[in-house]
Amino acid sequence: MGRFLARRTGESLFTIWGVVTTVFFITRVLGDPATLFVPVGATDAQIAALNHSFGLDLPLWRQYLHYLAHVVRGDFGRSFVFGRPAIDVVMERLPATALLAATAMALGCVLGCTSGAIAAMRKGSLGELVIMTVALLGQATPVFWLGLMLILWFAVDLHWLPAGGYGRPANLVLPAVTLAVFVAAAIARLTRSSILDILREDHVRTARAKGLYPATVFFWHIARNALVPVTTMVGLLGGELLGGSVVTETVFGWPGMGRLTVQAIESLDFPVIQAAVFVAATLVVLINLAVDLLYQALDPRIRAQ
Amino acid sequence: MVEPVLDIRNLTVVFDTPAGTLHAVNDLSYTLMPGETLGIVGESGSGKSVHVLTMLGLLPCPPARIVSGEVLFRGRDLLALSERELCDIRGAEIGMVFQDPMSSLNPVLTIGRQLREVIQRHAGLDHAQASARAVELLGLVGIPDPAARLAQYPHQLSGGMRQRVMIAIGLACDPTLLIADEATTALDVTVQAQVIDLIRDLKNRLGTTIIWITHDMGVVAELADTIQVMYAGRIMERGPIAPVFHQPRSAYSWSLLRSLPSMARHRRLYQIPGSPPNMIHPPPGDPFAPRNPFATPRCHRDVPPLRQVADSVPGHQVAAWYDLPAAVAAHPEIADA
């Protein structure tokens, strides 16, 4: 266990270094930020001064080493736009993204697992057909379109919920539902196929031959085993959501990391882009680590390897 | 008079498949007395597994469909019980041991959990009492250091140990009837011998009535009191071990016995010609007739009933129109082939 954790931690650090390095070099080819910040008709000297203040006049390799040395200390520099430490700007947006991701994830998991399980246990029924059709539509529907449609129905026509904003529980409903539909659709399809695989296995017959109650058979001998692949999917989707759902956050004006990242890219705010990508990558790595540990808890055969 | 533990009457089970109706079990009737060990042999598709899974309600219906019959277990018709009532019997009064203990045990639950859950379900014991009983059971089936095994997972045990765990689960609630379906098939020969010894020992100690389903005649000879040879969902021959093995009356059991390797006779093993019948379109008469070198015209026409062979051998029954000893004597070239 200790060795496993040490190895996985090493791998995680390597992954984060890779991401941090890649984003550094990619941002450098995006363009010259100084040109966005100086007034039209500024002199070369003014631009050079600005570049100097941003540290962009140094050779690339020195910029990179300087950048790495600071990243290790959690310092991504000051945001060109906000004039404050970039990491602070990003971390301020994290709670909003985390709240949206967690709500959507919880809603999607409950909905996806339940409907997937019903579809599998009632295979061949009308219920299965309906659930699987809805799930397929849910996965195929573009998130921005679904978000706009929800705004149209529930905010514009029915006036039940606000079209956007942040702060009250009501603000959360539409963006969370938008994301949850996508999550639930993916999970429902995987849960169904996973349960159908488990149902074919001999140990389910053994459980029934023991005279266990149907609920015991379902939860301990079917769902428990079917959960293993679903956990992976939840981890992948969770990482995606925590990185900031750019489209949903933009449609609903949600002040999360996704929207911040897009704005930072538009304004070539290198420190914020780098900080945001770093935070997102770290979260994804942490979730993967958590999934690996959960996996081991769920399937003892993996522990043995 | 002693009541039979199991009394199957005219059981017929079919599968509705896209290709047509598959006749898996055809008008099957037999009884099993307390303490008796019945060995059921037959090749795949002979209905030997299907009929026990049917009576325990373990076959998915559809595609399986019970057309007719009664299965009286200690006087109650299992087929007429609700799923809820059957649940109370399964694992408690009827224990089951399946083939391939790797796939028949849940890989993600501990041995202890898989034993305790059946004990707690039926015996109403608490966790600690169930654990104690689980340790006792693992000891009974000859697993060393049973207390330590409770926390282990199936993949941490060897094949033979896993099969012992399966047997412990089958015996957990002191069942009246233990059904083992190919319980030694997935094991190598030495482990198989150990498991057979174990079952024989348990049978003597606990007096459990046993149905042992296998395609291995050798296992039946070692373990069973009565052998029942099945083919195409019917009983071809049934009787005490010695007469059936020494004077088989069905051409099918005769062929099976001749296809066993022998230490005494060094000759080519007999190969039954043809292949098992298509059970969607079964042959009209005796199902084995198309492969039977001794078949008479009547065999191809009418289904033979199961009848007593001779008054001198009680319980020896055969379903055949021909007289096998006479037919073998008349055709020595087939017998020596």
UniProtKB/TrEMBL annotation, chain A:
Write down the membrane topology: Multi-pass membrane protein
Q: Which residues form the ABC transmembrane type-1 domain?
A: 94-295
Q: Does the keyword Membrane apply?
A: yes
Cellular location(s): Cell membrane
GO BP annotations, alphabetical order: transmembrane transport
> What residues form the membrane-spanning segments?
12-31, 98-120, 129-156, 172-191, 212-237, 272-295
A single GO cellular-component term from the record reads: plasma membrane
Keywords in alphabetical order, please. Answer: Cell membrane, Membrane, Transmembrane, Transmembrane helix, Transport
Lipid metabolism as a keyword of this entry, yes or no, is no
What is the protein's major site of localization?
Answer: membrane
The record's listing under PANTHER family reads:
DIPEPTIDE TRANSPORT SYSTEM PERMEASE PROTEIN DPPB-RELATED
Of which family is this protein a member? Answer: Belongs to the binding-protein-dependent transport system permease family.
Protein name per its UniProtKB record: ABC transporter permease
Q: Which organism is it from?
A: Gluconacetobacter liquefaciens
TrEMBL record, chain B:
Show the GO MF annotations: ATP binding; ATP hydrolysis activity
Q: Which GO terms describe its cellular component?
A: plasma membrane
- Is ATP-binding among this UniProt entry's keywords? yes
Entry membrane topology = Peripheral membrane protein
KW Transport (keyword) present: yes
Task: State the SUPFAM superfamilies in the record.
Answer: P-loop containing nucleoside triphosphate hydrolases
Cellular localisation: Cell inner membrane
InterPro entries membership: AAA+_ATPase (IPR003593), ABC_Ni/Peptide_Import (IPR050388), ABC_transporter-like_ATP-bd (IPR003439), ABC_transporter-like_CS (IPR017871), Oligopep_ABC_C (IPR013563), P-loop_NTPase (IPR027417)
* ABC transporter domain mapped to chain residues: 8-257
Q: Which NCBIfam families match?
A: oligo_HPY
Q: So what family is this one in?
A: Belongs to the ABC transporter superfamily.
Q: What is this protein called?
A: ABC transporter ATP-binding protein
Q: Which organism is it from?
A: Gluconacetobacter liquefaciens
